[in-house]
Every structure is written in C-alpha cells, then in structure tokens.
Design goal:
Keywords: WD repeat. InterPro entries: F-box-like_dom_sf, F-box_dom, FBXW5, WD40/YVTN_repeat-like_dom_sf, WD40_repeat_dom_sf, WD40_rpt. By secondary structure, this protein is an alpha+beta fold. It has 2 domains: 69 residues, no CATH class; 368 residues, Methylamine Dehydrogenase, Chain H (7 Propeller). The protein contains 10 helices and 31 strands. The strands form 8 sheets. Strands 20, 21, 22, 23 and 24 form a 5-stranded antiparallel beta sheet that branches. A 4-stranded antiparallel beta sheet has the order 1-31-30-29. A 4-stranded antiparallel beta sheet has the order 2-3-4-5, with no helix packed on it. Strand 6 and strand 7 form a beta hairpin. The longest helix has 23 residues. The radius of gyration is 29 Å and the shape is globular.
Length: 578
C-alpha cells in the first residue's frame, strides 16, 4: 500500500541488465530486493507497460505472481542462438522433433533426411535420390518414436504433382515401406503407431477432381491374404480446381485445459464478414434456360477464352449437381460441438481444401470413427449405397485467404493457421485466377472444441511469393508459445495467452520451419533457405549452462550445533532417556 520503494526505471534496469547475484553491486540490500520482487503492484505496472498489453487482458491463469510472469516472458523465450548446424547442402524445408524430444529430423532440397540426437550431433543421414525423389519436404515421428515418416516429391513428367511417403525404422535405419502420395503437398501423417494416411488424386474434368485418402500399414509385409495393408478412408469431390492438401490428425481427448483469452469483438466482426462473403459469391446460371437465335448468335461471337470459361462454369455446375446427388450426408451428431464426455476420444482428420479456386482457403474436418483406425475390413472402406460416390465434409472453416501453414497445440485443442489474406469483399470469377494475397501473414487460432476461430489473428511475419507460387511456411506450438517461419529472413515467437510477439530469430534467407522441443519449450530449432539449422535457447538456460559449478556451502556453526543437538535428542528418545 506504500507504493514501490524504487523507481520503475531502476527496477527494470536491474532486472534486464544485471545477473541475479549482482543486485548487491547496484546498491540494493537483500531485504530491499526481496521487497521489490514481492511488490505485485510494481511488477503488474511494469508488465503491462513494457509489453504494451491492454490492461483488459487478465494474467495467465497458471501464473503465480506478476514478477514471475514478467520473468517468464523475458527470461524463458528461446531467442539466443547457441549453435548453427551446416549438415545440409541445400535449402532446409522442415524440422520435426521426436515426442520425447531426444532427437529431431530435418528435410532438405538436397534430398536427404537427417536425424541428429539430443546433443545436436548427426546420428544418421539418408539420401532418397535412389528412389527418384526430387527432394524431401516433411517428416514426422510416430507416437512411440520407433518409426519415421518421410514425405518427398517424386520426379516425373513436366509439372508432375506426385509425391511419395517412405517409412524408416529408427532401430536400424532400414526402409520399411514406400507409399505413393498425390499431390505431394498432402504430405501425409501418422494416424497411430502403426498406420499412416496418404492421398491420391483423380481428375474427372478440367476443373473437377476426386481426392481419395488412404490408410496404410507402416509394415507392408504380407501376414495373410485376409489381412489388408491399405484401406480407403474417404473419397471427396473437389470443384473449381481445388484439391485436398496438408493432412494432419488431431486426437481431441483432452479439452480440460484453460481457455485462451477470447476476442469476442473480433469474433462478431468475423461473423459479419462471413455473411458478406456469402452475399458476394458468384452465382451460377441455370442449365435449363431455353436457347434462342439471338443467344446462339451471341455465343458464336464469343472468343475462345469466353467459350472456355463458359465450359468450365458448366463443368463446375454439373459437378455441384452430381455432388449433391451422390455425396453421403454428414452425420451431424458426430461432429456437432458439445460438452466433452468423460473418457471420450474424438479423432479429427484436418486438411486444407477450397471451393472457389485452386489455392487452399478452407480447413476441412472429418471425424475418424473407431472402426476406421485399422486396415481390417473392406479395402474400399465402409459399405455405402450405389448412389453415394463421395464422402461429405463434416465441417468447413473458411479462412478467406491463401493457407500456407498449420500446426496443432500440444493438447490438440487449438489449430494455428498461417494465411495470406485476400482483399476484403473480393469476388472470384475465374477459379484459375485467385485474388492477390497480402504480404502480411495472419496467424489464425481455431478452437477444435467449438470448431470456430476464437481470437484475433497474430501478425508480425511477412511473405512475398505471389499467389501462384506460394509455398508452405511451417509453424509449431508449445505449451506457452507459438513460433513460425517467414520470408523476411526471420522466425517469430508469440505468447499464446497475451497475443504478443516476443522475439525475432535472424537468418540469411527465408525461414521455412521452426520446431519446439516437446521436452523443453526453451529449446527451439529454425530451418532456412540459407541451408542452416539454428539452435536457440532461452537466456535463463544459457546462463545456467555457462555458470560454473558451485562448491557446496560450508555449514554454519549454528546449523551444525542444532543438527548435533537434534540427533542426540533423537538417540535419547530411542534409548528411553529423558
């Protein structure tokens, strides 16, 4: 109630510039520093002013005090470069940690996948050139860290979009299986310890296609002629040249963590924008219009480009009509947001898709049922009527921009999405010409419990590649932080609760991927087009690593006398002496 005993500027200078054992040299006694560290009013004011956080944002629900919360954001961010790895000879595209955090893998355009260990030294390197791969682009450890999924681009004819997935044993680094994956930016992912998901694409017309998602056994050995090694999960129709890409699995078994700070104003604004987008969607003409001589003459006068556009429009409408007639109806009870049942384990398949143009601008969600978790049963999946060619999407979230990255929080409740926004109110008249995209990257936060976007987008990072050449910028999420690469030669770290950017991580070229250690969020890796992987640690961990080992403190006379007296008293009690 008496206010701070030191000026704010002096306290901040002491905290930011001096190590903890140098407080005495600043003219403070231990009692004064103890009083400062316990002054919650002072640290709360410093916290809001230093990080420029609105005072309406409450303190993190897990925070013990304002002093410790200030210290967490300043001292525990992995922003100090401690090592640079130069094992790759070309652009490094992706990084992935094992679930225990003792190893990580990296993929590169030099067509290798490398697996350093916890001491950041190379353990193994595999070249995929022998399998006619152009480069490796993505990797993922299975749940028990015994297998590694590696996704790459398969060299084929000009403009080929084919890819392939390889499964490598981490016990002896042998190749266990290879699975075709089309298009290559489906990437692939693990469903469980022994099964992975891949994709295939079949074109029905110039603008219409069918994406088939397959469940594959990691071990492609033939145990019995009655046991499948592959099973079809879903068959989904695509229109307007869109395709399914970037599949990932969310196991939503734990939704008991505290909610993030919600931005209700941003939510209501997003709902209004969504309504406006529906109003501005292009209308398709009716196939039943009667033709007249004047219409025939006008059609003859149309140029080749206009006739092609009309044909594509007809194809899109026919595809939509066929989709409505031959798509299995979604089971709303399976995906409808509700309060989680104790012991319930919902498994969602998440992927990027679209409905207006070929660039990915929507998040599709399918619920995977328990009987779909293995390859047992019919190869073509569950039985369906002859009229049900396609599976419907259980839920769709429109991002209104080009999606260039996705990542799940450790508890799989929140999905973070990198996107580059389209202009407000834009209308797409030709699916082959998507709208221009912003240089600023928006990082959206989607709550998989409520299946809606819950917060205002995070923003600080930028990208410059045009919309027809856009590539993936991988991001990663830890307990408290979210990090992402960018094309402005930096990686970025935000705090998940306070919605603020905390650090910029410098490289010499585009930063393609970042990865937190699951065992220690104060360790972060970043991969770049400059062919390096950088290792970042927090200031706190750097100090601990550099601090000399302290010798054991000598016991004082008083503590020794008290200890001897206590021991003698205990001995007398045992012997029955007073």
């Amino acid at each position: 109630g008496c206010g701070p005993i030191l000026p704010d500027s002096l306290v901040l200078e002491i905290f930011l510039r001096l190590p903890h054992d140098a407080v005495l040299r600043a003219g403070l006694t231990c009692r004064q520093w103890l009083a400062v560290s316990r002054d919650e009013f002072l640290w709360r004011e410093l916290f809001y002013s230093y990080y420029r956080i609105p005072r309406s944002v409450p303190r993190h629900p897990a925070a013990v005090s304002w002093h410790r919360e200030f210290k967490r954001l300043f001292d525990c961010i992995p922003c100090v470069e401690v090592q640079t790895l130069r094992e790759h000879s070309d652009q490094v595209l992706h990084l992935a940690f094992s679930h225990r955090g003792h190893r990580f893998s990296s993929c590169s355009k030099d067509c290798t996948v490398k697996r350093p260990d916890g001491n950041i030294s190379l353990v193994h390197s595999s070249s995929m050139r022998q399998f006619n791969w152009g480069y490796t682009q993505f990797s993922q450890f299975n749940a028990d860290d015994s297998l590694l999924l590696v996704s790459g681009v398969y060299l084929g004819p000009h403009h080929s979009s084919s890819g392939e997935i390889a499964v490598i044993s981490l016990e002896n680094y042998t190749l266990l299986s290879r699975v075709r994956n089309k298009p290559y930016d489906v990437f692939g992912c693990w469903l469980n310890e022994t099964h992975l998901i891949s994709g295939n694409l079949h074109w029905i017309g110039n603008m219409t296609s069918c994406s088939v998602l397959w469940l594959n056994k990691a071990f492609q050995d033939i145990e019995s002629e009655n046991v499948n090694v592959v099973k079809r999960l879903f068959k989904i129709q695509n229109i307007n040249a869109s395709t399914i890409r970037t599949v990932m699995v969310a196991h939503c078994r734990r939704h008991d963590n505290p909610d993030l700070v919600l931005d209700y104003e941003a939510q209501s604004q997003a709902q209004r924008q969504k309504g406006q987008q529906r109003q501005h969607q292009p209308l398709l003409f009716d196939l039943g219009t009667s033709g007249s001589e004047e219409e025939d003459e006008e059609e003859e006068e149309e140029g080749e480009c206009q006739r092609q556009a009309r044909d594509l429009e007809i194809e899109t409408q026919v595809a939509q009509m066929m989709g409505r007639a031959h798509t299995k109806a979604p089971d709303s009870s399976l995906i409808e947001p509700s309060e989680p049942v104790e012991g319930e384990d919902k498994t969602y398949l998440l992927f990027t898709t679209g409905s207006l143009t070929y660039s990915p601008h929507q998040i599709g969600i399918k619920l995977i049922k328990p009987d779909q978790m293995t390859t047992s049963g019919p190869v073509l999946g569950e039985e369906r009527s002859s009229d049900e060619f396609f599976d419907s999407l259980d839920h769709v979230i429109d991002i209104h921009g080009h999606i260039i990255g996705m990542g799940l929080s450790p508890d799989h409740r929140y999905l973070y999405v990198n996107s580059r926004a389209w202009p407000a109110g834009c209308v797409i008249s030709d699916p082959m010409f998507p709208p221009p995209i912003a240089e600023e990257i928006d990082l959206h936060v989607i709550d998989l419990k409520s299946l809606r976007e819950e917060r205002r987008s995070l923003r600080a990072h930028r990208a410059f590649t045009p919309n027809d050449e856009c590539f993936f910028i991988f991001l990663d999420v830890s307990r408290d932080f979210v990090a992402s690469g960018a094309e402005d030669k930096h990686g970025y770290i935000w705090d998940r609760h306070y919605n603020i950017c905390l650090a910029r991580l410098a490289h010499d070229d585009v930063v393609n991927s970042v990865a937190f250690s699951p065992a220690d969020q104060e360790l972060l890796l970043s991969a770049s087009d400059d062919s390096t992987i950088k290792v970042w640690r927090s200031p706190r961990m750097v100090r601990l690593a550099q601090a000399p080992a302290r010798p054991p403190r000598p016991r004082g006379l008083l503590s020794s006398w008290l200890s001897r007296n206590k021991n003698s008293t205990s001995a007398n009690s045992v012997n029955g002496k007073p």
